[in-house]
Every structure is written in C-alpha cells, then in structure tokens.
Amino acid sequence: xxxxxxxxxxxxxxxxxxxxxxxxxxFIVAPVVSVFVYGLxxxxxxxxxxxxxxxxxxxxxxxxxxxxxxxxxxxxFGLFASLALWRLRFVGRGLMRILVLxxxxxxxxxxxxxxxxxxxxxxxxxxxxxxxxxxxxGFYGIVTMQTIGLATLAYLVISSAIQKTDVTHEDAARSLGxxxxxxxxxxxxxxxVPEITVAAMLVFLASLSDFSTPIIIGGGFQTLASxxxxxxxxxxxxxxxxxxxxxxxxxxxxxxxxxxxxxGRNPVYSxxxxxxxxxxxxxxxxxxxxxxxxxxxxxxxxLLQYAFIIVGAFTERWGYDYSFxxxxxxxxxxxxxxxxxxxxxxxxxxxxxSSLLGVLLAYIIKSKQYVMSRQIDFLATLPAAIPxxxxxxxxxxxxxxxxxxxxxxxxxxxxxxxxxxxxxIIYLICIYRYLYVGMKAGYALMEHLNPNLEIAAMxxxxxxxxxxxxxxxxxxxPAFSAAFLKNFTSSMTTLGxxxxxxxxxxxxxxxxxFTIMTSSEIGAAAMMALMLSLLSLVLLALFQLLLNFKAxxxxxxxxxxxxxxSRQSTKHTGG
Amino acid sequence: xGIKLKAVNQTYGGLKVLHDINLAIAEGEMIALVGPSGxxxxxxxxxxxxxxxxSQGQIWLKGQNISHLPAQDRNTAMVFQNYALFPHMxxxxxxxxxxxxxxxxxxxxxxxxREIVAxxxxxxxxxxxxxxxxxxxxxxxALARAxxxxxxxxxxxxxxxxxxxxxxxxxxQKIKQIQQEYRITSIYVTHDQDEALSIADRIVVLNExxxxxxxxPAEIYLHPRNRFxxxxxxxxxxxxxSDHEEIRQHxxxxxKSYPSAGIAHGCDTGxxxxxxxxxxxxxxxxxxDLSGTVVWQETLGAVNKLTINYQGTPxxxxxxxxxxxxxxxxxxxxxxxxxxLASAHIFVE
Lengths: 575, 349
Description:
- The complex is a heterodimer of chains A (about 575) and B (about 350).
- Chain A has helices spanning about 1-5, 10-40, 50-85, 95-100, 110-120, 125-130, 140-160, 165-175, 180-210, 210-215, 225-235, 240-265, 285-315, 325-335, 335-365, 375-380, 390-400, 405-410, 425-435, 435-445, 450-460, 465-495, 510-520, 520-545, 550-575, and strands at about 315, 320-325.
- Chain A is mainly alpha-helical and about 575 residues long.
- The radius of gyration of chain A is 26 Å and the shape is globular.
- Chain B is built from 10 helices and 18 strands.
- In chain B, helix 2 packs parallel to helix 4.
- The longest helix of chain B is centred in the middle third of the chain and has 18 residues, at about 165-180.
C-alpha cells in the first residue's frame, strides 16, 4: 500500500517547497531580523535614549497623526465612492468607475508633482494667482496628497466587497419596517465592517510606509519613514535608521494583524454571490447628490493632476516661463531613456517570477501536507506588513556581509560585498516582496476549485506531477495572470524597497523622477511621470491582451458582428 | 378584506413578467402561489411586499391602497428563501429587530419575543449567533422575526426549499399550525406541489406570468382547468378522446357529441376534448375491460408505480399494497385494467 501510494508522489514538489522556504527565510526573515540586530547591537557609542529616541518619538507621532487622518479620510472616500458607483444608478457611472482607478498606474508621487505645481514656491495658485511666497507644505499637504493617492486603494477593497452585497438582508429589514437610513445604519454598514477595516488598515500601512510625499512636500514636517530615508541618504546614519525602522514596524505589524484577522473572518459577503440588482430602488435626492458630488470631486482632482502633469511636461519652466516646448521630451529620449529600460527590465521578470512562485507555493501549501506550511505561509505574507523602505534597509545591513549577514561576525577578512552592489539584489527584493500577491491570488482561486478534482484525477491513475500539469496548472492560470498584472504594476512604480540598493547603472525611472523632483526640475519630472504612466498603461494593455487573448478575440468578433448588424439595420431603416 | 390585486402588471427590464393578475385573498386565508421556476411567483410576492416597484395595476391591503407605498410602510413581513437572517445579530436581536424599529417599549418587546420564541420552539437559542444554527432553526428564527411584528400579511418565499425532505414536512405542519392559530393572512410561494396542496386554503397556479387557475386544493387536483394545471399539480393521465374510441364507449359517449359529459360547446371550434384522470383512478384488475403493455414498473414500498402503454399513449397507474396483493407484474407483460370514470375529468383545449 505504502509503496503503491509513493509511486504517485513527486519529489519535485517537496524539493521546490523546501528550497523556496529556505530562500524565504534568507530573503524575507533574515533582513528584518538584521534591522533589529543592527539597531540594538551597533556599538558606535551614541546613547539610545538621549539622541535617537526623542527624534524617533517625534517622527512616530507625526507618522501616526498623518496615518490616522489619511486613513479616516481615504477610507471614508472609498466607502462613499463605492456606494455611489455601485449602489446608485446614474449617467456616466461606467466612465467614472474607470477614472477612479487611474491613480493605480501612476507613480506614487505624481500627485505631489501636481501639488508643487499648484502650491509650490512658484506654484500656479500660491505664487502666480495669490502672490504668496510661502507655501502650504507640511502636514496638510502630506495629508491631502496621501488621501488622494490612497483613496483608490480603499475604494478597490470596499467596492469589490460591495459588489457581492446580499440585498435580501436589506429587503428583510425593509419588510420589517426599517427606513432606508435605519437599514444603512443597522444592516448595511455593520455588515461591511470587515471590508472597511481591511481597507482602513491597508491605507494606514501604506501611509506609514510612504516616505516620498513627506520628502517632497513635507518641508519641516517629516515622518518616521521619510526620516529613515534622510538618515541613510543624507546623514549616513544607519543605526538611527535601523532604530526608526524598528519603531515603524510596530504600528505596521499591528495594522497588518488587524487586517489579517478581519479578512480571515468574512462571514457575510463571500458566501453567496447573488446575481441580484444591488442598486438602491429608492434613494433620496439629497443623498444621491452628495455621494455623486464627492466622487466626482475626487475624480476631478485626479484628472487635474494629470492635466497639470501634461501641461508641466510641455512647458519651458514651470512658474517662470509657460511657453510650449518639447525640450523635456527630447532630453528624456536622448539622455534619460536608460531608467525606463531598466524599469521595464525589472518589472517584467519580477512580475512573472514572483507570481509564478507565489501561486505555486499557495498550491503546495494548500494541497500537500508538508511540514511547517502554516509558518511558511505566514513568513511569506510578512512583506505585506513591512514598509518597503524598511525591507530595503534590512537588505542593506544584511547583504553587506557575506553568509546571511553572519559573516559580519565570523568572516571579517573576506571581500565584504556579496549581493549588495549587484543588479540581482534588486530583482530578489522585489520577487520576495511580492510573493504574497501570487499566494493570495492562488488561495482565492483554489477556494472555488472542487477539492475532489485531484482525487478524481488520482483515481483515474494520474501521478502528482501529471495532476499538476494537466489539471491544476491550467486552472490556476487566472490567479497567475491577476498576480502578474498587480506585481508588474507595483514593480513599475516601486521605490521604497529598492532606493538604497540601486546603483547608477541600474537606476529606475521612479527613482529618477524622485531625484529630479527633489532638485525641483519640475518640467522634466512631469514629463518622466507622464511617460512612466503611459508606459505602464501601454504595457498593461498589452499584457491584458496577451493573457486574455481568447476573450479579446471573441470580444472583437462580437463587436464586429454587432457593428455589421447595426449597419445592416440602419441600411434597412434608411432604405 | 385581506388583499386585493387589481390588474397587476409587472415589467422587468423590458420584459413583461406578470400579466393582469387579479386576485382577492380573504382575511386569515393561506394562499399558495405555485408554478414552474420563472413563472413570476416570487416577483408577485416581492411586488406585494413593495420590494419591487409596481408597473401597473393596484394592490389593496385591508381596504387601503398600498400600490405605491414604500415597503417599510406596508405592514407586510417576508420570510425569505435563504432566511436573510442578520448575520451580525444574535437570534434574539434578529427577532426583536422589527419591534425596535417600531419603538415598542422594552417590557412589551420582551413579552412578545418570549411568546414567539416559545411558539417557534427556539427557547435556549436566544443568545446564539445565527451562523451557529441548523437550517431548520434558522428557518424558525426567520418565521419568528416576521411573526413578532404582527404583520397584516405574511409572505413566504419558498421558505422550505433549503431543508431536507423530512424537515420540510415537519416545518410545513408547524407553519400551518401557527398560521391558523394567529389567523394571519398569508401568501406562500413554492414550487413544491405537495407543499401547496398540504398547506394552502386556496392554490393559485401561475404560468409565464399569468394565472392559470385559482381554487381549493381539491378543485385544483380534481378539476384542473387545463393540461398545464393538471400536469403541474400532480402526475396526470391525459387522453385525447378522439383518438380512443374504446374509452369513449367505456364512457358511454357517442362519437360526435358528448352531452353526458356536460360539454355543450367547444367541440366544433377545432378544439379537442381530453379526459384526465390520476394514477390512483386506475385499477389493475384481471377482469378489467382495457388492456395494455407494461412499459416500466418500480416498487416504492407502499406503492408500486406502473407505466402502461395503452394504444400508443402512456398511462400511469399505482398499486397499493403490491407486496401483499399477490400480483406479479413484469415489464413487457400484458395487463388488464379499468379506469374509475366517476373521478375522471374532462376539459377542452
């Protein structure tokens, strides 16, 4: 019996699982541990309590203040927009559903570029219109920009839940006599608490991790993440940076665990996917107007950002000379094209490899009973909680030394640089950082697969490897595609994790924009941001096309048919 | 007066799903709405509840025109197919919800809930989460939640379809008992004919958005107006009389006119006349005057079901106490039988 069963097992899966697990320890766990080791054991003599802690504490307060405010605002917006775009019926809804997602493809600080254009020292509003010399840099600027940037994230989470609303709960309350307002307060809203919490925690995490917005428009108001950047890039103080990182990890970890708890228990929405109409039948005019107004206002902001980016990209010098020019475009095409190529060269392999590994790992964890799989799942998901910049520092302090960083203590004579300073390390950090995306997509898909599929195939005599190739892999493809698109987009615009690891020769576009912006070359930055957004868009469309080629072909066929039909019918009516 | 539907029409996404529904339901009456899926029965129920806006016609409840009242103000309570219990509330909170909305004071609220909980046998489960209940228990919470607000009408939307057969039978008895005790006007949507026959004072058969027939269970069962109702409500044998000279003679009818059957018209308008009888009206009898071939037979314990090929038309028959009857029926064997023509029914179509 035992040997009979073994015939069907494949060593490959086990090997893959243990190798990947080992590398997860090496590329995810070790760097995080290193930050702690480095922060706590470094012996450069600076008193922890006198100098570092007050500074860290001040930035921590700023971080929490910004994070809390942004979370509140962005989540509220995500909720309003989800209600407006999915539970109300109005003209232009379809277009707005697309426009609201636009911030997802642009680099994270496109908003900040536009903000400087409007409110900067030579800003259109502050300087040209109002004649101010001061600018609203600082807390309000950061909150505004982060809210606009992260509201889309909240919208994405809440709207995907709202689409699965089971309206019979509301109908039940309705038939029991509850008014529409009472229904919303006692039924709809409480049932959305898990999704709203998850959205809020993701926004909170993202706000805490964001270092670029405070750097660009924070002025004297810096947060833990941005100070961390300053510590390394400006003051070369790795130890303070490591300690800041430790403190940054605390609220992030808390948010992450709350989020994980709530997305784990999701009693309402995931059960029944109802085909019911979820739009409200009776909505008061006032409520409808307010919801649509708020959503439109946000979209207007997003569109304005792009409008200013476009204008800035094609004008001579923002704030001084608004004449049309192709100068920035030419500069980038001739001198600055390398970062774009580097970006694409990073994003495509990272997208493919991390998605593939993630989906595979999810499959193995779910379907094979290998040892420690729950722990590995946990460790691989950890980067979701770790700000990119923190993981970046982890890599910086770990891979300066040979042998897992342990070489710091034992192999002091060896050439210290092993991974750091090679291009590979950037690929590695991105792949391991995004592993969990593929895993999540894989888990989500597998929940809908019939668990008896494998048993059925086994029953028909297929071995483990055959089952995977013939049955599981084709079924998991959608998870891979989804993860790829997400990871590709993230890699195109990532900065935090890799900013300390990049060398001049493999500079990426986002970093270039960031550098240019901090030296306030607005026109060139705007042009690069514009081009990066367009590049993401074009490549995304291309991949979408490749991944859904069949669906697209069918769609085109349909459109053609419809076109010819309608042409025929117009002919009929015309003749 | 309970409920009155006057020429109710319902259009849904450009599609007409209810045509001219006219129906009067007496106070305290239990009406079953039956029909195949997609016939519009749930749409009609939701229209009465106000959960779907009415396209045309009028709905009256206790002498009040409620056609365009919002669902909240109609004083109807609905028991949903998937129960629609509020998952974030306990059993007691679910049941109390309607009373809280109505601002009933706490003492009275508690009394009412206690009474209903006892009536629906939910004692001891008050503080449970709804996700911890069995299907049958959830069903009873849904019923209790609707009953406790003492609605003018109770609307059941296939409330038992998610339960297994045994529980279904027990629950429909329970529902009937409670309905009779409170004498509460009820409309009960189901696609299960047995459920309709057992529970309703009157049955409304719907097909493609139209009422085919309204009548007591006996009327619907014994005197269906047409082939659809006859076949929908239970297994029916339907013979076209012009094809079966032997049956006509059997009936004592002459070829051209059928005065004895009480049919004065319809024969000359190109329509046909059908004889309908139920399987239990067929008696297997060695001395019977009709004969056919056994196509299929199956034994279900109390009843033996037979399909007989009678001159090219299948006839369904039942034998009670087959095991004790000493009969030995084989597939493809010839068989003699007779039809209890006193119970047979004739319709023109």
